[in-house]
């Protein structure tokens, strides 16, 4: 079966500025495929070319076998695109927006069923301007789905949402996928990519740095274990660095951080116990998608991207 989205050697310039140098990826039917990358990496330009909103300067794109430039009218019927905030008139109600958008499609979805599924039924008569950020976001997803698309493109799905609304949106997207919709998702959020995406393309400076599952990306930076603890009494580094399973030891004030093989934890706890040293606040860190992102792009996630209040993600600075 051909892939739902095929992007080969996409190239796009704005004047002299190369926004997308060379991007290739495929999205299989029923996948949630993420595009992750630092600011200005070329993510939005890439998906706008996929949507047919921008004309590539080079390369080839097929969406459901259609060329987004030449087959724009047909593709519009089968592709769902999320509106950006502020693209609806303030006075338009939720019900009016869905009915208007429904009229654009040959085989639209039932607006009532969509409002029920998206928790918007009670907001049927509410004007756009009076919706909360989360409700606007859900409406934009509803409008992306009103045409019964086979493929939906969602750009910055949960930007601006609080952590609970973000999690609710994720479960909604999983429901949408369960109905057979293929999803291309642009995101800044590591946790979103980790929780939602089957595979992720990391794009950096207009090129694909890697395409893999979040776990696959994380495993690329797996360098054994990183163990941190506060010793109950001082000890010489050599006590641990002489162990064959230990590859490094650093100290941050009274905190000891040891790196080593997968057996390092056993070796360290045994030798500490033999020397009557208690490892207080012992923690074993697993590499995260954020570690992989940093290793692949040399960039930390956009400021604030994963630091929304209440999220549990630790920043790299907090973790190292
Ligand atoms: N309409 C435009 N005209 C000129 N340059 C543009 C235009 N849109 C984007 N660019 C430039 O192209 C490059 C890629 O931008 P793009 O918006 O695709 O990146 P992005 O990865 O989506 O960034 P962000 O995460 O900040 O949204 C950037 O250098 C940007 O300044």
Note the topology.
Elements: E1 5-14, E2 17-27, E3 32-36, H1 43-51, E4 58-63, H2 72-78, E5 79-81, H3 94-102, H4 111-117, H5 133-145, E6 151-155, H6 163-178, E7 182-187, H7 190-196, E8 199-204, E9 207-212, H8 214-220, E10 225-231, H9 238-241, E11 246-252, E12 255-260, H10 264-274, E13 279-285, H11 289-297, H12 316-319
Parallel strand pairs: 3-7, 3-8, 5-6, 6-7
Antiparallel strand pairs: 1-2, 1-4, 8-9, 10-12, 10-13, 11-12
This protein binds adenosine-5'-triphosphate.
Features:
Rossmann fold, binds adenosine-5'-triphosphate, disordered C terminus, elongated, 2 domains, 320 residues
Your description of this structure?
With 320 residues, the chain is α/β, with parallel strands linked by helices. It has 2 domains: 215 residues, Rossmann fold; 62 residues, 2-Layer Sandwich (Alpha-Beta Plaits), CATH 3.30.70.980. Helix content is 32%, strand content 27%. It has a 6-stranded mixed sheet with strand order 5-6-7-3-8-9, sandwiched between helices. A 4-stranded antiparallel sheet has the order 11-12-10-13. Helix 8 crosses helix 11. It starts with a strand and ends with a helix. The C terminus is likely disordered. The site of adenosine-5'-triphosphate has 11 residues, from strand 2 and helix 1.
